[in-house]
């Protein structure tokens, strides 16, 4: 049996569903402008929730961005309904990329905050098709960690969910 995943951060009373609110756009936001179509983009899919378009400086052939029409700065602002629809759409775009591009793999990347590499402050999900020898490098350092520290981190995050 499934249980509810609603926590204090994503309580629907706090974060209203799309049906209950207007689409909020932000002035002078590049991706708000692209989402509404006032700045052109190489669009591969659009509906009333999202626009999906090719990245203007692609990491690999077919690199695309899923962008909600509504303005959210980052993942912390995203409501559950938009997030759910977004990931569902990502699976659809991923299969289309696999079939159209013949990529051998695919990375999903989503940056939040300048420290994490976010350069456009409107939530977006990167879909980066991967090919043998494409030169894309998404690696990070791997550290050792002792059990005590791991337990401390586990407890700290768990307590906030
Ligand atoms: P991030 O660094 O995660 O914020 O990603 C922003 C992405 O937006 C980068 O990969 C840029 O190449 C891409 N980008 C910026 N301007 C445009 C644009 N006008 N059309 C398409 N992609 C863009
Ligand atoms: Zn925006």
Account of the protein in words:
Strands 1-2-3-5-4 form a 5-stranded antiparallel beta sheet, sandwiched between helices. It has one domain: HIT-like (HIT family, subunit A), CATH 3.30.428. The protein is globular, with a radius of gyration of 18 Å. The protein contains 3 helices and 5 strands; from the N terminus they run H-E-E-E-H-E-E-H. By secondary structure, the protein is of the alpha+beta class. The chain has helices at 30-36, 80-101, 147-158; strands at 43-46, 50-54, 64-68, 105-109, 125-130. The protein binds adenosine monophosphate and zinc ion (ZN). Zinc ion (ZN) binds next to helix 1.
A few lines on this structure:
This protein is an alpha+beta fold. 25% of the residues lie in helices and 16% in strands.
CATH class: Alpha Beta
Percentage of residues in strands:
15-25%
Mean pLDDT rating = 91
Please state the overall shape, judged from the principal axes of the Cα atoms: globular
Level-2 CATH architecture: 2-Layer Sandwich
Low-pLDDT stretches are none
Q: Can you list the ligands bound to this structure?
A: adenosine monophosphate, zinc ion
Helix count from the secondary structure assignment: 3
Q: What spatial order of strands do you see in the largest sheet?
A: 1-2-3-5-4
Query: What name does the CATH topology carry?
Result: HIT family, subunit A
Number of domains: 1
The number of strands is 5
Q: Secondary-structure element sequence?
A: HEEEHEEH
CATH superfamily: HIT-like
The percent range for helix content is: 25-40%
Largest sheet: 5 strands, antiparallel
Distance between the termini: 20 Å
């Amino acid at each position: 049996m499934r249980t509810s995943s609603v926590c204090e951060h994503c309580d629907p009373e706090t974060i209203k569903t799309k049906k209950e609110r207007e689409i909020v756009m932000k002035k002078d936001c590049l991706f708000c402008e692209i989402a509404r179509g006032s700045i052109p983009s190489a669009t591969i899919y659009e509906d009333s929730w999202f626009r999906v378009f090719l990245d203007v400086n692609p990491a690999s052939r077919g690199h695309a961005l899923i962008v909600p029409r509504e303005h959210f700065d980052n993942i912390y602002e995203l409501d559950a309904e938009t997030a759910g629809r977004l990931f569902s759409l990502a699976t659809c775009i991923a299969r289309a990329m696999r079939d159209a591009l013949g990529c051998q793999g695919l990375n999903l990347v989503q940056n939040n905050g300048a420290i994490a590499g976010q350069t456009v402050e409107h939530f977006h999900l990167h879909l980066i098709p991967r090919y043998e020898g494409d030169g894309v490098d998404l690696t990070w350092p791997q550290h050792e960690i002792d059990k005590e520290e791991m337990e401390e981190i586990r407890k700290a995050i768990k307590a906030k969910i």
